[in-house]
Amino acid sequence: MKQTVRLYDFLDDERLKDNFSYEGKIALFNALEELEEDTGVETDYDPIAIRCDFTEYSSIEEIKLNYESIETIDDLYDNTFVIEFEGGIIIQDF
């Protein structure tokens, strides 16, 4: 059974509220939708997994505090899935 999730539902999901900004949720939703379109693989909506797999940061400097191997944004792109948006960066944790 698949669940269709629209942007409004994603933005309104209380389980994501404390982990992502409003702008971050829009960017994350769009990136996940684009990934589905690019790969042709439909994914199940699991907000708990999303919350565990992705983290929003305000800057590359903040990311560097958690990942010593990251020096530049290019290093980040070489290591994980990155979503840049106005106001921050969301990465898939690694």
Summarize the structure.
With 94 residues, this protein is of the alpha+beta class.
What does this structure look like?
The protein has a three-stranded antiparallel beta sheet, with helices on both faces. It has one domain (7-92). The N and C termini lie far apart (29 Å). The chain is built from five helices and three strands; from the N terminus they run H-H-H-E-H-H-E-E. A hairpin with a 2-residue loop joins strand 2 and strand 3 (88-92). It has helices spanning 7-12, 22-39, 47-53, 60-66, 73-79; strands at 54-57, 82-85, 88-92. The model has no long low-confidence stretch (mean pLDDT 94). 48% of the residues lie in helices and 14% in strands.
